[in-house]
């Protein structure tokens, strides 16, 4: 996975009824755009994320 600051991280729901989470990549801490990422979620919270296989990046 590769991301740049300003890209969006989308994480699909794991169970029935669980929606998709979306956030903006605020900081890339790995080398060459690799995880981990500091993400600001749509609810305003920020956190360090190591995306799993259910996640994908959408360029800004």
Instruction: State the low-pLDDT regions, or none.
Output: none
In round numbers, the mean pLDDT is 93
Helix content class: under 10%
Secondary-structure-derived class: mainly beta
Approximately how much beta-strand content do the residues carry?
Answer: 35-45%
Oligomer: single chain
Overall spatial form: globular
Give me the number of helical elements: 0
**For the terminal residues, how far apart are their CA atoms?**
15 Å
Helix-strand sequence: EEEEE
Largest sheet: 5 strands, antiparallel
The largest sheet has its strands arranged as 4-3-2-1-5
Number of strands: 5
- The figure for the number of domains is 1
CA-atom Rg in angstroms: 11 Å
Describe this structure as you would to a colleague.
InterPro entries: DUF1918 (IPR015035). It contains no helices and 5 strands. It has strands spanning 8-11, 21-28, 37-41, 46-49, 55-58. The protein has a 5-stranded antiparallel beta sheet with strand order 4-3-2-1-5, with no helix packed on it.
Looking at this protein, list some descriptive labels.
mainly beta, 5-stranded antiparallel beta sheet
List the helices and strands and how they pair.
Blueprint: E1 8-11, E2 21-28, E3 37-41, E4 46-49, E5 55-58
Antiparallel strand pairs: 1-2, 1-5, 2-3, 3-4
Describe this structure in a few short sentences.
With 60 residues, this protein is mainly beta. The protein has strands at 8-11, 21-28, 37-41, 46-49, 55-58. The chain starts with 7 loop residues before the first strand and ends with a strand.
